[in-house]
Model the fold of this input.
Amino acid sequence: MYDCTIIGCGITGAAAAYLLSHYSLRLLMLEAANDVANGSTKANSAILHAGFDPEPGSLMARANVRGVEMAAEICRRLDVPRLNCGALVLAFSPDDQHTIRELYARGLANGVPGLRLLSAQEARQSEPYLADTVTGALLAPSSSIVDPWEYALAMAETAVKNGLALGLGRAVRRIVRPDSPSGKDYFELTDSQGQSYQSRFVINAAGVHSDQVHAMIGGHNFHIHPVRGQYFLLDKNAGRTCSHTLFQCPTAAGKGVLVSPTVHGNLIIGPDAEAVADPDNTATTAEALEYVRRMALRSLNNIPFGENIRNFAGVRAQSDRPDFIVEASPQSSRFINLAGIKSPGLSAAPALAEMALDLLAQAGLPLKRRSDYDDSRRRTRFRYLTPAQQSELIAADPRYGHVVCRCETITEGEIVAALHGPIPPRSLDAVKRHCNAGSGRCQGSFCGPRIHEIIARELGLPYEAVTQNDAGSYIVTAPTKGTGSKGVTAC
Amino acid sequence: MLKTVKQLRDCYDVLIIGGGPAGLAAARAAWDGGARQVLIIERDSAPGGILNQCIHNGFGLHYFHEELTGPEYAGRCLDELADTEVELLLNTMVLSLDELPQEPGREALGGLLPEPVLATLNPDPLTGHPAHRVFAASPEWGSICLKSRAVILAMGCRERSRGAIRIPGTRPAGVLTAGAAQRYVNLEGWQIGRRVVILGSGDIGLIMARRLTLEGAKVLACVELMPYSSGLRRNLVQCLDDFGIPLLLSHTVTEIRGRRRVTGVTVCQVDTSRQPVAGTEQDFDCDTLLLSVGLLPENELTRAAHIPLDPRTRGAYVYENMETASAGVFACGNVAHVHDLVDYVSEESQRAGQAAAAYARGQGISGRAIPIQHGTGIGYTVPQSIHVDAAGTGQRDPAAAINLFFRVTRPQEHVSIALYDGDSCLKRWPRLRVAPGEMERLQLPPALLHGCGSGSLTLALEHAAPEEAGKND
Done:
């Protein structure tokens, strides 16, 4: 019997797991994918928004401002890359000038610190490549960027280290309510592998699938209307094209696209917004990418799109309500929906989790703080160490002297450490998210086969069982002729 | 066999980054040129570079005058070093040249660590320049800083990946670069798919079409964006035609399908501006898409060391002795420009090795260097600049021809290559046929350039009457 089960380990579920794991509770988290942070959390703009955008008084506004305040502390404590780079909202017309004044006023009402309206000249001083057509800008110095998957991973890992049971590759298929004819006092959940769990409380953080999960207990008071957004990710050679996150004003022509540095030193450009029927449709399209490219070139004179290393798309869990949904289900006060978490969901996540805890407490979950909580988390990142520190590390473990991912300078030691971490990555893409190996300019063309071998070796998996990403994304089909049942070893 | 490093030295004569064919040939030439403290740094556990996974034949016809496989060619290069004292440092990744390694992103982790300050080096008495510094990491030696009078960049190239060509669609398993597939099949011993479409007709893609067919996979088509192939003609014949694999010119892949593993791709014809033509879509039911869409010289170290790069070759600007704009730093092989034949890599790298040895003993090349301008039809040249007066001054063997590699921008027939000094044509070389996929080479007699008057050399492609064009030499 679990006290609480969290469904979905994206940023929202991970934040809920992290906060809940501070209390003496038996916790379970079920995730459909074979790794954490594998949905919207891995495919977004990676911005911790300042909070000038949401409507004052909305849940979104409160959660955004509170969430980024919490994020600063969580990232510091859990060693998550976060950079306070600031943001500019660019104006190109008198209408835009009006919009940025509105955003300025909204930001003040939301309690966003340090906002300032800049002239075109002032804006250009901080961003030399701004397009000539920029007429002014709103500066939001508290806007930050973060590594979204490491942020989610760090919180989930810490929860696991403190006793949370995590089931990966386990989609929830069926939930029986406590007040059903069974007369039981707990939820009974059954996963895609046929295993059942009993839990007194449930948090639904299933992202684009949260309406389907809610429907399992007969809840139908919100629906998800997925919205896809597409991106470019440019090489680090282009990472200094701008130093702030550059937003455009929303207009009748669209919401505008952003250009931003990332915490790893790349440049990210996107997204568009397109309603899609299938919540898992993360395909990119030529038309949308062309739209993003054209829109981004309004902000900056010269974006080196020739340095593109990857395109991707994410699906935002937009609901049929304007605000975030943070509430107990009408079906049961012990079933908390954290749903419709579109942008600024990454910014708001810990605040939403905090609200969920209040709702759980109100519904009768006893929250007794633990005295033995361990939230130390330190990652070894070879590339950021001084030569003396590197030598010391290599002397202690020579695998840190073996650079496997040459584009990002990730060592075998770091990959092995990730594979033996609290949440072991089991695929090439998961290794990429957990320690950045394969995320660079060659996108794993060189290190992919080498990481493949390390995963198989360290996890004791057959070579052919290592996948690109989720179950079924097999990489190799069969041994070559004459090599018997196993592949020959590399010379 | 090469000597492995027992002890690191204070300062090397010539330090070579990369132990592939370029680095190995450069090492031999540096040794022959009198350098005695020569070190090759190789990131892999064995020398040979990408040749180790190229198990097909066709290597060595020019350089060793016999047909070899890739591993055999690498073995020959190693044999040639057997009677030298050249040392090899394996499993060692060079992180930076002349500057402390700077990986972006550290500022996102709570501020910068204090950087150690690099001591200023005194000028070397032989070269007149401070020694170059090479920062590297190795399991055996830790994080090291090696000094050398001359450095040779021989890091090779890497493949362009999906992002560089922006193919829309899903992102499933089964989309690989041809080189990654080659590693899986030839070194790891695993097949990577059963029904394969290949995008791009570069040589590795063509070789893999044949290799996968021999392993029992069905290669459905080789799709090429341009109206001509960028691969060697012999590979088109031996790898596609001989196996009945269709080559679709002026076509591209416009969509990748499949959530977990590739389930199919859409192929479209493209117009003259390389845009897909609506209504020409063909669907291929496949589980694998191989990308053979070009190679990029791997110049991250070069860029970080602020050595100027030529946007056309994507390698460093080099003189005829393969020296970059940074005195004492040389570049050769695929890091300087992508070659079609390893034989030419070896030859070019010998020049770099000789020149680096000369530099290390204080006989660097100097004098008037004239850049080569590109006339019509010329895509790039290597070298980009030539010291025209060096011959006969002791800096260069007066009899040695200057080697000029170049590529044309599009396929043409019955042309001549013309070299101009200002407005006057120094010489014309006839060619029956030229193509961007086949690198061209000219051997310039030193006397041709000596005293080049105008201060400007131009290489151009000109039409020639068929009877003048002669045959390729």
Summary: Chain A touches chain B through 84 residues (CB under 8 Å). Residues 30 and 167 of chain A are 5 Å apart (CA to CA).
